[in-house]
Amino acid sequence: MPYQNPTLFGVAYASRLFREVDAAQAYEKLRNETGPELDLQYPDNNGHAQAMLNWLNSWGCRIDKKSPGQLFQSLEKWFRQWKLRFPRADIGLLDAEKRDFDVLADAYEALLPIHDLGPTGASKLLFSIRPESAMAWDAAIQSAFQCPASAPMRQIG
Q1: Where are the domains of the chain?
Q2: Sign of CA dihedral 153, 122, 87, 79
Q3: pLDDT higher than threshold 50 for residue 157
Q4: pTM score, two decimals?
């Protein structure tokens, strides 16, 4: 039976567990390479975009790594548009306000058409930028919550 009424606490708890049980501590490796905040503004100069791509693929995304230039340029443009709108990095799910969720949902929807990120890659990318307030999910989670690919973040809150 699908779980149809996720609570905010349940989502926050699941998000925390997701971060702590990843394969070979990939999330910690990403943070070691990028510092406390992922910055996609200068993909060629800081290595954050490449570290993010490696992390996404280690977490099950299948994004082509052969020629990431177009992806990095698109992400740079997206990041510049959304960076100042994101909730503060220290705001957790339980403390977030409706406007914080709206910004994350809008930023997620803006990520969907970029390269071959798809819903899973877009959610995990947002999680890497705001791990305290954005939840990473995959197709199984999205299906279990019966959320549409275009707006699962709007279903919770």
Answers
A1: 8-151
A2: negative
A3: no
A4: 0.79
